[in-house]
Structures are given as structure tokens and as C-alpha cells.
Write a structure and sequence with these properties.
It is built from 5 helices and 4 strands; from the N terminus they run αββββαααα. By secondary structure, it is mainly α. It has a single domain, classed as 3-Layer(aba) Sandwich (Rossmann fold). The strands form 2 sheets. The chain has a two-stranded antiparallel sheet.
Length: 151
């Protein structure tokens, strides 16, 4: 029930210490220009870039997201990262720019929202906005806001 999940998330927030999170600092590295998926759900995914490119996160546990984010992920019933999330999160964790192209419903919104949310949890709130998300339509902006509010 939502009451149980809400308590689970609140417990995670109450017990959260940013020093417990090592998000973005533990991704295994690959060398090369192109990295393709080697698991069934990642076989069609491709990543291009210069230098070292992090291995995809094939499970949520490998992401090292802070406890409050992990609590929300499990509370929402997500089983595993989608291909775009699996590849975007470790690259974003390296502080690199990402352009992700995927179909509707593929998890793109969380692919770009969760990395900055993870960083925000470990920092003092600043005056003013912490993040600006631009969308080409009001409808998409509302969908992004709805997704963000779940975390």
C-alpha cells in the first residue's frame, strides 16, 4: 500500500547520510569508441564517445544511488534499469554530456533526472532553482514534472 511505501521512503530519508553514497564514482570502465550491450535487454543499445566509457548498470544495486532514491525506485516497483537508463546513468556519473535517443516509454525521463537528484541529496539547498529542465511542449513538461515528483 502507499502508506507502507511512504513510510519506507521516509525511513530512508531520515536515515540518509550523503557520505554513504558513492554514486557516479564506482562505475567500471571500458576503453574504446563504441560499447554495445552484452546482455539480452541491452543488445540493441550503442554508446559512442571519446576516452573511457563506463559499463552499463544492469541492476539498480549497481547504480549506487542514495538510499532515498533507491527506496523510491523499489516502492514504485521498477525491476531493473531500462537500456537507456543502464547506459546514461554511468556516463552522466562521470560528469559527461549525454544525448539519449529512445522510444516513448523507455525510461528517458528518469535517465536524465536521477543523476542530478542524486547529487542534490548530498548538498546543501541553494537559493533558487537547482535544476532547469526544458521541454518542447507544455504536455511533455507536465509529464516530466509528474515523474520528478515521484522522487
Amino acid at each position: 500500500s502507499s502508506g507502507t511505501g511512504r513510510n519506507f521512503v521516509q525511513d530512508a530519508m531520515d536515515n540518509y547520510d550523503a557520505r554513504d553514497s558513492d554514486w557516479g564514482n564506482t562505475a567500471p570502465q571500458l576503453t574504446g569508441k563504441e560499447v554495445g550491450g552484452n546482455e539480452t535487454d541491452l543488445t540493441e543499445a550503442k554508446v559512442w564517445g571519446d576516452g573511457e566509457i563506463a559499463e552499463p548498470y544492469t541492476t539498480f544495486n549497481s547504480c549506487n544511488f542514495p538510499k532515498p532514491i533507491m527506496a523510491s525506485i523499489y516502492n514504485l516497483g521498477f525491476a531493473a534499469p531500462t537500456p537507456i537508463q543502464a547506459y546514461c546513468w554511468p556516463v552522466s556519473g562521470q560528469g559527461r554530456d549525454v544525448i539519449g535517443i529512445a522510444k516513448t516509454g523507455s525510461g528517458k525521463t528518469l535517465a536524465f533526472l536521477l543523476p542530478p537528484f542524486s547529487r542534490f541529496l548530498g548538498s546543501r539547498p541553494e537559493r533558487g532553482p537547482s535544476m532547469l529542465v526544458m521541454a518542447p511542449t507544455r504536455e511533455l513538461a507536465c509529464q516530466i514534472q509528474t515523474e520528478a515528483e515521484r522522487f
